Amino acid sequence: QVQLVESGGGSVQAGGSLRLSCAVSGKSLRNACMGWFRQAPGKEREGVASIVNDDRTTYAASVKGRFTIPKDNAKKTLYLQMNSLKPEDTAMYICAAGFYCVAGRISPVDFAYWGQGTQVAVSS
Question: CA 88, CA 86: separation in Å to the nearest integer?
Fold first, then answer.
């Protein structure tokens, strides 16, 4: 079984930065693919970024160039570094893990394990 616990959310002004963390327990990250999703009130869940087992990354167009998704296998932790934040980035950010992902996409069908989420609020 895999458990995911997110942290690092909070409130920030537009233009600021936040780093989210997702601590993984239960299995090694070495063969896992992982991703970040977000969901704003009244909106569909949106894929933000993913990283597969050979460290190839994929980003949503809305965050490309501003967000990165580094992973520390030794610490069993996934991060989401968010820079140049905008009010439209406000959402619950949710970490996900799987073992059968397709590189080049950020699809919820690839992920079997989900965290509870951490809230990010960006004010203008």
Answer: 5
The per-residue pLDDT for 111 is 95
* CA separation for the pair 15, 104 (Å, rounded): 28
pLDDT digits (tens, 9 = 90+) for 80-89: 999 999 999 9
- pLDDT band with cut points at 50, 70 and 90 for residue 24: very high
**Residue bearing tokens 């996900």:** 96
67-60-103 Cα angle (round to 5): 105
Q: Are 58 and 73 in contact (CB under 8 A)?
A: no
Angle 42-69-55 (CA atoms, 0-180°, nearest 5)?
130
